[in-house]
Design a protein that fits this description.
The chain has about 140 residues and is α+β, with helices and mostly antiparallel strands. It folds into 2 domains: about 10-105, Arc Repressor Mutant, subunit A, CATH 1.10.10.10; about 105-135, no CATH class. The chain is built from 6 helices and 6 strands, in the order H-H-E-H-H-E-E-H-H-E-E-E. The protein has helices spanning about 10-20, 25-30, 40-45, 50-60, 85-100, 100-105; strands spanning about 35-40, 65-70, 80, 110-115, 120-125, 130-135. Strand 2 and strand 3 (about 80) form a beta hairpin. Helix 3 crosses helix 4 (about 50-60). The longest helix is centred in the middle third of the chain and has 15 residues, at about 85-100. The radius of gyration is 23 Å and the shape is elongated. The two termini are about 35 Å apart.
């Protein structure tokens, strides 16, 4: 079920946020925002071992957040850049998800529901659910 007001569903958004939850990946994205860079440039700027930089780049690439291109004259070199379309999609999903109009926090929901299997009456008020025993078993 998609409840987000964008094309990203909640599982995809959670996976993207999980990728971004690693501080080194955020630093790498920040550096890539300034332009195309190779693994060695990123490693030097971040003072990270090349294998660790490669690991984080691989995670970001599999999430679709960055692009990779091999050097046409020397295949040993890989150049990384931001996938701006995917970043824009993620930003739109986050803005849509965090929008107060989406949350409808000030809207009062009031209804009476009965759980037939337990004979309990459920009252939903302002997105908080309380349950009171109706005495029916």
């Amino acid at each position: 079920m998609t409840i987000l007001p964008t094309s990203i569903d909640s599982k995809t958004l959670a996976a993207m946020l999980s990728v971004l939850a690693e501080p080194n990946r955020l630093l790498i994205l920040d550096l890539l925002m300034s332009g195309v860079q190779c693994n060695c440039e990123l490693g030097g700027k971040l003072k990270m071992a090349p294998n660790l930089v490669s690991h984080h780049l691989n995670v970001l690439r599999h999430a679709g957040l960055i692009n990779v291109e091999r050097d046409t004259s020397d295949a040993r070199w890989l150049y990384y850049s931001i996938n701006q379309e995917k970043i824009d999609e993620l930003v739109a999903a986050m803005i849509g998800f965090m929008d107060r109009r989406h949350a409808q926090m000030d809207t009062e929901i009031c209804c009476e529901l009965t759980a037939p299997d337990r004979g309990q009456e459920l009252t939903v008020v302002s997105a908080n659910v309380s349950c009171r025993d109706t005495g029916e078993r």
